[in-house]
Amino acid sequence: MRKVLVFSTLIFFSNILTAQTIIQRDPEIEQMVKEVSADSLKSYINRLVGFGTRNTLSSTKDPKRGIGAARNWVVQKFNEFGKQSNGRLSAFVDTTTLMPDKRRVDSITNLGNAMAILKGTDPNDNRIYIISGHLDSRVSEVMNRRSDAPGANDDGSGVAAVMECARILSKHSFQATIIFVAVSGEEQGLLGASFMANNAKSKNWNIDAMLNNDIMGSNNSNETNIIDNTRLRVFSEGISVLDTGRTAINLRNLGLENDGRSRQLARYVKEIGERYVDHMEIVMIYRADRFLRGGDHTPFLTNGYAAVRLTEMNENYNHQHQDLRTDKGIVYGDLPEFMDFEYLRKNTAVNLASLANLAKAPPVPQEVRVDVRNLTNYTTLNWKAPSAGTVKGYYILMRETTSAVWQKKIFTSQTAYTLPYSKDNYFFAVQSVNDSGNESIPVIPTAGR
Ligand SMILES: [Zn+2]
């Protein structure tokens, strides 16, 4: 009996050694990443700055100056890019009317998000992936709609990333749908993102992930003289605010405070971003956003969607929310001359690789369970095929309970797998993977009896 046990343990270990997968880059994504251009990004930002101000309360009618001209131009660019998409990319301004709210909206305002939808190829797959930046800008006083508010980095950088991803991705086809959006009203209280997230919820959109890009093209801090263009922060919440009652008790009992869907998405962006973008480290911050601050992913989180914020490593507050001026030799204002377009290129590429890998990947495996029928030091996982698409197989992921990232990634073509490691001591998850190696977001197993 003892012999048999030792023998089977060896088999399991050797399975892991031989099955431990060497991940290869998908050549199609590698090629798309190479197309991300610092010059393109710079040209978009210069054009955006050219609208003078993009304050949400500025003119929507003036053909040259203000938020209206800016959003029309973004949609015009989306339509230009869409010519290479065989009619799959559709672009429009999604508008709503804001009423005065005694806070940051003082008059009836026409708000519009500039959107482009790249329809997925599989009619049975309703997954949606969103990349966003915010089109609106501000100076020191948030209600000031007259002064120049260049908003080159906040958030010209995010909008440029959205546009560059639309330019490149719309030449390719994806199983799932991708939405590119430059929202408005961020500085007035996340109004454009709330409008979009509420609309998505009411229409039952299956948003699998949302990447919010806000302030990601400057490489330095104003106080500490740090220059860093090799690291990008991704902020994520651990568990959803909607995880209450019995769900919250279960999460706590299983120690899954660090495995909510947005945290899982952050881990995914780290893995895929670092897989495809050289000289880039994704730094996960275990927090929904910066200290006491929020962003356009917030309304998506409160509607129950997985969403993260991507932001440069250090912020320079001399160039954020400032009137253009020079004071005691310091130049204030959010101008393109303070940006690092090579850094923005890499940060855009992280988004592009993550989006492309997600939208090419099959949906997640279904009914992922860990077998708890008997007490054992092994861990047996089983699951069912995803609801749409085809898979080559699955990755089993494993990490120590204190590890921020997955440590083992094992391929199997089966829908069950036994590991010689105890579920007491490790976290496990399962991903679907297709022929070109694109993997879904990991799914944490529930207890299966
Ligand atoms: Zn911003």
Give me the Rg, rounded: 23 Å
Q: Please, how many helices?
A: 10
**What ligands are attached or bound here?**
zinc ion
Number of strands: 17
> What would you call the shape?
globular
What's the end-to-end separation, in Å? 27 Å
Strand sequence of the main sheet, in spatial order? 1-2-4-3-5-8-6-7
Please trace the helix and strand order, writing H or E for each element: HHHHEEEHEHEEHHEHEEEHEEEEEEE
Average pLDDT score: 94
The major pleated sheet works out as: 8 strands, mixed
Would you give an account of this structure?
α3 (38-49) crosses α10 (341-360). β13 (393-400) and β14 (408-412) form a beta hairpin. The model is unreliable at 1-19 (pLDDT under 50). The strands form four sheets. An eight-stranded mixed β-sheet has the order 1-2-4-3-5-8-6-7, with helices on both faces. It has a four-stranded mixed β-sheet with strand order 15-12-11-17. The protein has helices at residues 2-19, 27-35, 38-49, 67-82, 156-169, 191-202, 245-254, 261-276, 298-302, 341-360, and strands at residues 89-98, 109-118, 127-134, 177-183, 206-213, 231-236, 281-286, 307-312, 325-327, 330-332, 366-371, 379-384, 393-400, 408-412, 416-419, 426-433, 446-448. The chain has 449 residues and is α/β, with parallel strands linked by helices. Bound molecules: zinc ion (ZN). Zinc ion is lined by residues 134, 154-155, 186, 214-215.
